[in-house]
Fold Glucosamine-6-phosphate deaminase.
Amino acid sequence: MRVLIEPDEAAVARTAANAVAPLVRHATCNLGVATGSSPVPTYRELARRCASGELNFSGVHVFLLDEYAGLPQQHPQSYFSTIRRDFTTAVGIPDDHIHGPDGYAENVFEEAAQYDRHLTEVGGIDVQILGIGRNGHIGFNEPMSSLASRTHVAVLTNQTRQDNSRFFAAIDDVPRRAITQGLATISEARSIVLIATGPAKSSALAAAIEGPLSARCPASVLQLHPNVTIIADEEAAQDLEFADYYRQRSAH
Ligand code: GLP
């Protein structure tokens, strides 16, 4: 794992955009996107580079990591609506280049399996942007999800529903289930960029990078991936035992 520690959120966004930009420049690019607050400054930075003519997203298709079950696509808190608002509209990616499972499908289990097949059919993800939950989840793979999981219907923990309730009027409005790419599905992305900012992520990040490979911390599965870049600010990096060593490695 490459671990890059940056002074603040703005520097994290620039470094993450630098990691994604070369792939966006290819004629076609399958870009895996996460929702949540962590990647938003990176999306803004990519939008800034698009506005200045530095980057062009016409060959980019985006693929959602996960989607709430039970919310129609048009719901303002569906991840489809969220990614439009946070990213794709600003870089001119049309709606028919946004791929994701339909959380409102009649059979969400079949929908999950279908999305997994779709990811394979399109040739897989070139670069996957990830955040990390306070409990170490990636996508909606909560602790004790199978490390071998494919795209599936996941039950959200109370902590995750509580954390995400800031986007809803009340906690009872937060869906209890979601369709998420599984940990094995995510691991098939050719490259992965995980973004972590703020002190609330520090223990999950330390467990993901330095803890044992364990379903207790789903993000630890990334230790097995050959091309992962973790970009953290100082606050998120504060519990890393080997922080000095990561700094030394990235300087050489
Ligand atoms: C959500 C999403 C994840 C995201 C995580 C952290 O539950 N399913 O993809 O990484 O929360 O979100 P935030 O970046 O807002 O802390």
